[in-house]
Amino acid sequence: MTITHPSTDILILGSGASGAAVAWRLSKSGFNVVCLEQGRWIKPEEFPNEHADWEIQARTNWAFDPNVRALDVDYPLNVDESPIDPLMFNAVGGSTIHWTAHTPRFHPSDFRVKTLDGVADDWPLSYDELEPYYDAYDALMGCSGINGDPANPRRKERPMPPIPIGQDGERMARAFDRLGWHWWPSDSYVNSVPYRGRQACNNCGNTGLGCSRGAKGQTDVAIWPEAIANGVELRTESRVFRVETDAEGKATGASYYDADGEENFQPANAVVLAMNGIGSPRIMLNSTSGAYPNGLCNSSGLLGKNLMFHPYAMVSGLFDDGLQTYKGPLANMILCQEFYETNPSKDFVRGYTYQLARSSGPISTACGYMFGRVPWGADHHAEFKRRFGDVTVLGVIGEDLPEEHNRIELDPKLTDSNGIPSPKVFYTLSDNSRRQLDDAVENAETALREAGAAHVLATRLLKAAGWHLMGTARMGDDPTTSVVDRWGQTHDADNIFVVDGSVFVTCAAVNPTPTIGALALRTADYIDRERADLKS
Amino acid sequence: MNLTDGEFLLLASVMDIIVPPVDELPGAGEMGLAKEAEELAARIPAYGEALHRILEALSLEPSVRVEGGFPALDEEQRMSAIEFLEANMPKYFDKFVDLIYIVYYSDERVHERIGWRSGPLQPLGWELPAWDPAILDKVSKREPFWRKV
Q: Among residues 45-84 of chain B, which lie with CB inside 8 Å of chain A?
């Protein structure tokens, strides 16, 4: 027996970076909003950083990879055909719970790669159009940083000063200075001072495990309290399996399983999908109907295709000056965008960002996330001593280009604990991305040596690195080559919107969340401004 | 997973090879950490499978099928038996070593030796030197070079 709820104006699926932003914005304008989240609230005392076994939890029940966590709330992914594992988290706050909150913006050129470099496609909007929404999202989540970066357009003052970059950050910054390369303190959604009722960061280190102080910009603490106070109903442990539509293809609501496994139906005037670049196309592909035999709003045939990750290389420098590089936020120090743009003398197009990162605790050192595993046996202790607290990492974020064969499909056998089909990921690293990463590794070795690294080790393609999930319901003006329009509204139904990384046309060479948040706020603004018909 | 007495002794013996004694600390097995390894393996299926496979393979490996088994071998023989597993069962061996490292580097005696503060990261956090804008002196003088559209 299906439980049917009273209808709402806007039904949002997912409570992470984009869903929370839409809920907050529309709740301020008098829309009735319900948000369905498959996960639950995480209490501050549950975060691993509050526990002595935090490093064990990071590798088990709090791992980035849902296939490793394997919790009931997660859905498994078939990654047999992908060299990169998608990473995500399922709870109120979505993947902002475990992100490191490094928040650079796209460059103006990122919206025009077809025009400038003849590859991929231009976005149907510009940096200038998105800029006010970047500012708004920065203010909402809380951005620490400083203006004046010569690699980026001048922007509004950040709400908070930069977080300290530490001696290890300074060491790398001076090396970049000597090489004549760009660097700048990273924008981060980490509080350098108390902000909007949340504490300042105390540099505990592992931003990737959730922040019990509320110092990191997670939507569970940065957005949801205000959205709920505005009247939004956030319904947790509610796992959506289908967006329902009428004979004309318009959304009528969504069906989901509650915590008891009961089937529920939430009617709505409009549905907003915000479940990340794999979660949203998964549910859309599962929402077949007479109107949509190939998946929800898939007349273009592009739903689930053009999957982009940021292929990551990791180049680690081993120093011998005992700086205790585990002290401080994990990856919120400085970035380098010297090689961000296409260089005609190179054998690849587009470019990459370096994101400086720290090391971590003893288990991570021994098991080798940053610098390969410490050998067992007679040399173990000497080698551990050499590495512990002495590793600094240049992470390479390369711009992936959209390719239709990189995609997700519904796996014919694998399901989650409710029997909903799981995604199967098909991804091949392109030659362009391979050459880009190789160039980045070479330059990173130069920089780390300049900084004084005694030994450098490169991981040329990190497997556990699918943090950024993008492109699977791309945005565009042409309904035959895109799934959503410039406002995130699907071409096929004017009351179905997509607001997460799925809508990215290209992925730039930066972490995507500020852009996801800005696009979500822009879609919400559009709904408020142009779609009064959706309000009861 | 519950280890038999024989498996438990075998595990402790292997742990002493993987993480040998150092300074005042004995090897990981002699420190009594096989119990922790067994418990973690019981909790996390991937570690449980690795532990089971490695111990099983080690007990069947021809070179250790002598009276007293693996613990009775000399150090060189024990090393080569483990290296054989590393070469031939890399997937399980990697997880097995991770398991041993995890329990070893969770131990407060080890933390004390390596100078690591035991316990949760919060609420203490770490001190960092305050942000000093003087570090920007050189780079901030650079002309804007972002690509115009």
A: 46, 79, 82
